[in-house]
Design brief:
By secondary structure, the protein is α+β, with helices and mostly antiparallel strands. The protein is about 30% helix and about 25% strand. α12 links the parallel β21 and β22. About 50% of the residues are buried. It catalyses: phosphoenolpyruvate + UDP-N-acetyl-alpha-D-glucosamine = UDP-N-acetyl-3-O-(1-carboxyvinyl)-alpha-D-glucosamine + phosphate.
Length: about 425
């Protein structure tokens, strides 16, 4: 088991380059199933989740070549003949369900073990399955497996009860070869949805409206291979913005899209952080007195739930009372208990956290309870007095490329210890 050890107190300086978005790359890899040929994905972040979904494709006879030197993945799905993907791999990661849409689109059926993932609350896949059923599939869930079959998918008007990112992506991928027109209403608007649609369109799909509440899809007969470079990771960008704020430092963050970061920029600016856009870079200056703020997580373009843990860590260091309300996942305050071990003053009341800023945090042995919580604990360690040991860092490795190396370049006293 590995752990990340941080000794707090160092100011950060310099610049950091942001990787491509994991939440774009995973559905794009799954979408390669649709091509029946060769696809190339460039600037891929070499993360554990990327390796898992790549291995899932290998388990259904896809040819996958990962070039870590060039951060490029080549995927040939011409030899896939429908079969069950490896259940042990599927159970490792919730994003495994993203192969459902491509499988039923190309083969008219799929059978998949119910997927796993971070323990941050209930994340049912009923919206995905209702979407497939609306397109004409017969869906069955039993004995830990979900199975669907369709002789032919027919376009339909589908209204999502909640703007689920995964459901929007899965239904969009299923509908690209469905006969006629499909309209997904109350669709998720995240930038990663638009990125996936751009990739599908480059393969020959006919999708308009991605990134809005209504996505229109005209079914085509088949898709072809393509090459694509995913968008930047707005959550990694936000994490380093908070790193500058929590250490009261000034850094430059390269490879970002200001538009995708507006909700994070707005709240950090409200807290008193100075942020300036400079082309594809942000200059973030937290070296000033910061103010407590209230935040409610919401689907995009609201404040992202994936930044809630990190902003909680920051507000623990800001004098006054802040309140964070979590509306997406009911179990996403597990990091609060770990932060309390470091001296944070956090009280959980249902879906809200009341945070009283403290004069200092103290280093402690803590565990990453999920991906974003792990990053937040590292951020707290950057300013904690003494040494912080963050365990269960396999969670962190699912979503951040060399986070300790990037922070070290910025001047943090941080290292990874493999035991």
């Amino acid at each position: 088991m590995s752990k990340i050890v941080v000794r707090g107190g160092n100011k950060l300086h310099g610049e950091v380059n942001i990787s491509a978005a994991k939440n774009s790359v995973l559905p794009i890899i799954a979408a390669c199933i649709l091509s029946g040929g060769k696809c190339v994905i460039e600037q891929v972040p070499m993360l554990e989740d990327v390796f898992v979904i790549s291995n899932i494709l290998k388990s259904i006879s896809a040819g996958v070549n990962i070039d870590k030197d060039t951060n490029k993945i080549s995927i040939d799905t011409s030899n896939i003949d429908y079969c069950d993907p490896c259940s042990e791999l599927v159970k490792k990661m919730r994003a495994s369900f993203l192969i459902m849409g491509p499988m039923i689109s190309r083969f008219g059926e799929f059978k998949l073990s119910l997927p796993g993932g971070c323990n941050i609350g209930s994340r049912p896949i009923d919206l995905h399955l209702k979407g497939f059923a609306a397109l004409g599939a017969k869906v069955n869930v039993e004995h830990g497996f979900v199975e669907a079959k369709a002789k032919k998918l027919i376009g339909n008007r589908i209204y999502l009860d909640f703007p689920s990112v995964g459901a929007t992506e899965n239904i969009m991928m299923a509908a690209v070869t469905a006969q006629g027109e499909t309209i997904i209403e109350n669709a998720a608007e995240e930038p990663e949805i638009k990125d996936l649609a751009n990739f599908l369109n480059s393969m020959g799909a006919n999708i308009t409206g991605a990134g809005s509440r209504a996505i229109h899809i005209i079914g085509v007969k088949e898709l072809k291979g393509s090459t694509h470079r995913p968008i930047c990771d707005r959550i990694e960008s936000g994490t380093f913005m908070v790193a500058a704020a929590i250490t009261r430092s000034k850094i430059r963050i390269n490879g970002v899209n200001e538009e995708y970061l507006k909700p994070i920029i707005a709240k950090l600016t409200e807290a008193g952080v100075y942020i300036k856009c400079d082309g594809n870079s942000l200059i973030v200056d937290g070296d000033r007195d910061l103010n407590p703020i209230d935040i409610k997580t919401m689907p995009y373009p609201g404040f992202p739930t994936d930044m809630q843990s990190q902003i909680t860590g920051l507000l623990c260091t800001v004098r006054g009372t802040s309140i964070i309300t979590e509306t997406i996942f009911e179990n996403r305050f597990m990091h609060a208990g770990e932060m309390k071990r470091m001296g944070a003053n956090i009280k959980i009341d249902g879906r809200s956290a009341v945070i009283e800023g403290v004069d200092k945090l103290t280093g402690a042995e803590v565990k990453a309870t999920d991906l974003r919580a792990g990053a937040a604990l590292i951020l707290c360690g950057l300013v904690a007095e003494g040494e912080t040991e963050v365990g269960d860092v396999y969670h962190i490795d699912r979503g951040y490329v060399d986070i300790e190396k990037k922070l070290k370049v910025l001047g943090a006293d941080i290292k990874r210890i493999n035991e």
